[in-house]
Design brief:
The complex is a heterodimer of chains A (about 160) and B (about 400).
Chain A (H helix, E strand, L loop, with lengths): L2 H8 L5 H8 L3 H14 L11 H4 L4 E9 L8 H9 L3 E6 L6 E7 L2 H12 L5 E8 L5 E2 L2 E2 L14
Antiparallel strand pairs in A: 1-3, 1-4, 2-3, 5-6
Helix pairs in contact in A: 2-3
Chain B lengths: L9 H5 L4 H10 L5 E2 L11 H12 L12 H15 L9 E4 L1 H13 L5 E6 L5 H7 L3 E6 L10 H7 L4 E6 L12 H13 L3 E5 L25 E6 L12 E4 L2 H14 L5 H13 L1 H24 L12 E2 L10 H12 L1 E2 L1 E2 L11 E4 L4 H16 L3
Parallel strand pairs in B: 1-10, 3-4, 3-5, 5-6, 6-7
Antiparallel strand pairs in B: 2-8, 7-8, 9-12, 11-12
The chains are: A alpha+beta (about 160), B alpha/beta (about 400).
């Protein structure tokens, strides 16, 4: 992977001058590269990784395993794209195995998620079955382990 | 007579405490310091390696091992060195597992040195070289290296210092603290020098995996005629972020390894078994972790070298290790003054170059094995410190 992406993936807020120093490039070159990755869609966006348990203790996250009937033209794509449009849907993946789509959704409460499944998802034409699994606790999110750990102590000066 | 000071052996009384130790105590006494004085990776040992050690404990692997180290680890070391250093060693009798390279240096010197034998080493260098030579009753002969020559060894300087009593040349490339590396051609010249004067070599190659810009480590033992006269010292500490596990190893001619093993067996017995188990996993499966850490170090190196140069400090772009060794001569301060003032005024710890020998005067060692966030703050503070002195 391009070293610029490696840095941004870990710390997207690194300033242009700092990026330039780390990559031994000029700031213009870094800016150009960033635009390139943004325009080509390699970088989809930048966002904060939130500790949702802290911010919204009652919020729920669910993974819904969805079985659908593939269509003659386009297979799973049309329905998957429709599901992806819902705002509460975080991610949609086509999966191998016993079901077809894995839909990850965030809701404010259990009721919210239940309503989404009952009123929106299961009504869509082509949906055969939904199995909803609720998250109980988060141990790792986007590569960050919860709770954020203090680094272990090191001696301050060593040979 | 009261006290026991006069009872301390003269050799021990005569060696100074490490300059690092003195400085460490000052830093410890202050709170809230960003330390660029650390001589080890800031990464925690990769999880798969820690996990392997935990598994070995679960299995009850808690006994002494063979004095030479577990056969399994010695086999892995032989594979690893064969693959990466270009020399084959027999796990049977040419490899000894030590408690870090530090023990390896001590064993090698004690196994080879008769009182008064001279040992050449390049300086600035790792803090233990001269004292360990003295403890082995040898005579330490420093060969200064220069900033203008990228802290590489100058053969003419070696020729000036070699005498009929010279028995060993100690090498450490990539070098702590300067980050110097040698080209293949320079190695060949050193090999010729050693053959010309019939010297043995103790080659501490602990930083060999931490090379940047795609540069490849060249080992002395790969050169014709050198394996026979070289003790290669290496270990898992730096490359695999395993300093606290204390696992190093020595590879060399069977007679010398046997002699080192005798000292080792009576003083240490064996390296800790848990560390040996972890080292097997590191050597077998650790390469991807090393690559990841190396890439991170390289980005940090780019950052700190750029920052130094922006502030007008002369600084070589090191091709290895995780240290920069910038010249602070233009501030008019000595290394120690610079380090102390920077510490007191800006709460940033760097190590005075003189901790690594007299020829380190005019320089300080800064590690970039510290996370980027801290490096940014530290170098902003160093920038302020320098501006205030213009």
């Amino acid at each position: 992977m391009d070293p610029l992406l490696t840095i941004l993936q870990k710390e997207a807020r690194t300033s242009l001058p700092d990026l330039a120093r780390q990559l031994s490039l000029s700031e213009e070159e870094v800016a150009e590269k960033m635009h390139h990755f943004e325009n080509s869609g390699a970088i989809l966006g930048y966002h904060a990784v939130l500790d949702r348990d802290l911010l919204e203790p009652n919020a729920v996250r669910a993974a819904i395993e969805v079985k659908i009937t593939p269509e003659r033209n386009g297979g799973f794509d049309r329905l998957a794209n429709r599901i992806a449009q819902f705002e509460e849907v975080q991610s949609v993946y086509l999966m191998s195995g016993g079901y077809d789509l894995l839909v990850v959704i965030n809701g404010r409460s259990l009721r919210d998620v239940a309503a989404f499944v009952a009123n929106k998802l299961s009504n869509l034409e082509g949906i055969q079955a939904c199995e909803t699994r609720f998250r109980l606790k988060t141990y790792k999110e986007e590569g960050l382990i919860y709770p954020l750990k203090e680094p272990p102590e090191q001696l301050s000066v060593t040979p | 007579m009261t006290g026991t000071n006069h009872k301390i052996a003269t050799t021990v009384a005569a060696i100074p405490r490490s300059g690092i130790r003195d400085f460490f105590e000052i830093v410890q006494s202050m709170g809230d310091v960003i330390s660029l004085g650390i001589g080890e990776p800031d990464f925690v040992t990769p999880w798969h390696i820690r996990e392997a050690a935990i598994y070995s404990l679960e299995q009850g692997k808690t006994s002494y091992t063979s004095n030479l180290g577990t056969p399994r680890l010695r086999k892995e070391i032989a594979n690893y060195i064969g693959k990466n250093f270009g020399a084959t060693y027999s796990p049977e009798n040419e490899i000894l597992v030590t408690v870090g390279v530090s023990e390896g240096i001590d064993l090698a010197l004690r196994a080879l040195i008769n009182p008064g034998d001279e040992v050449l080493y390049h300086e600035p260098c790792y803090v233990s070289y001269a004292p360990t030579i003295a403890l082995a009753r040898g005579c330490a002969v420093a060969v200064p290296t220069k900033f203008e020559e990228k802290f590489r060894i100058n053969i003419a300087e070696l020729e000036k210092k070699v005498t009929p009593r010279t028995k060993v040349l100690m090498l450490n490339f990539p070098t702590n603290p300067t980050g110097a590396v040698l080209s293949q051609q320079e190695l060949v010249e050193i090999a010729e020098f050693c053959q010309r004067h019939d010297l043995l070599v103790i080659s501490d190659e602990i930083y060999s995996e931490l090379m940047f810009d795609g540069a490849k480590h060249h080992s002395l033992v790969a050169l014709p005629g050198m394996k026979e006269r070289t003790i290669l010292l290496h270990g898992v500490s730096k490359a695999f972020a395993m300093t606290g596990w204390r696992i190093g190893f020595a590879c060399g001619p069977a007679e010398i390894i046997e002699a080192m093993m005798k000292v080792h067996q009576y003083s240490i017995m064996c390296a800790p078994v848990m560390g040996q188990e972890a080292a097997v996993e590191a050597l077998q499966n650790g390469a991807p972790s090393v690559i990841k850490m190396r890439e991170e170090y390289q980005r940090r190196r780019n950052f700190v070298v750029a920052a130094c140069r922006e502030y007008g400090l002369e600084c070589l772009n090191p091709q290895g290790t995780f240290y920069i060794f910038p010249s602070i001569a233009k501030t008019g301060l000595s290394s120690k003054e610079f380090a102390l003032q920077l510490l007191r005024e800006k709460k940033v710890a760097v190590v005075p170059g003189t901790a690594f020998g007299a020829s380190g005067e005019g320089f300080v060692r800064c590690t970039f094995a510290t996370n980027m966030e801290k490096l940014k703050i530290a170098f902003e503070r160093i920038g302020d410190f320098l501006k205030e002195r213009q």
